[in-house]
Amino acid sequence: MTWAKILQFGLKNWREIVVVACLSLVAIKTQLDYRALNKAYEISRQEMELQIDSLREIHAEEIRQREEAIESYRSAIEEIEQNYLASVAELEEQREKNRTEHIRQFSQDREALSDEIINAYGFELVE
Amino acid sequence: MRLLTLMVLSLWSNSALSEEAPRFTFLGLNECAPFEGVLFDPAATGTILSDRSFMSTECEFKIKYALDTQMAEHTLELENLQIRHVALISEYDMRIQSVQRERDALSEALKKQSKRNPVLWVAIGVASGMALSYGAYRVFNE
Description:
- The complex is a heterodimer of chains A (127) and B (142).
- Chain A has 127 residues and is mainly alpha-helical.
- Chain A is built from three helices and no strands.
- The mean pLDDT of chain A is 91.
- Residues 1-18 of chain B have low confidence and may be disordered.
């Protein structure tokens, strides 16, 4: 009885049923397209997040390497300064010894002193 | 500690010099000398002779210090440029790989969406369109 009524209703309103079926198909297709677009958007979003994370890692690594380079530079500068100061101090010590030797020569070995002045500057000794 | 030692040594050296301050004076003609001129005491003479002997060495030390400092600065600059270069290459590779992955994923998604036999589906679409058009024509002309 029920199936007969449904069949009768379908035969009576088949045009409306076809229109509703077509509209349903369009709606389903639209939904599928929306899902496809949403999936594409999701893929792009995930890739963008991955890119941001990778950029952060690369940037952190770059900063770490730069800090290492600066640290190495500071150590090199410190070593250069220490070497320079050591050389200057040693030179100063030698200069002081040399000066003391000249003072000694003045009182004990004037000939050597005069020879050195003559050799150094080419001056003439006048007695 | 080493630096402190050097500073102390340097101060000691300066104080040793300041204990006997070199002196000089001017002499006139026949003023205890056969000609006029400048008289240096032994400390001043020693200083002049010593300075002359060590001036070139001191100059070399200063030049070496300046060159070493400059080399360290240039090395730092070069390292920074190399680091930036490596970072840019990594960034470029990462972007390329990301774009490739995105392209592959989108292609895969598109393949799932699209049918495997497009010719067949085009034919079905055309036939369906024709049938629907004909059906509508028949229906609405009843």
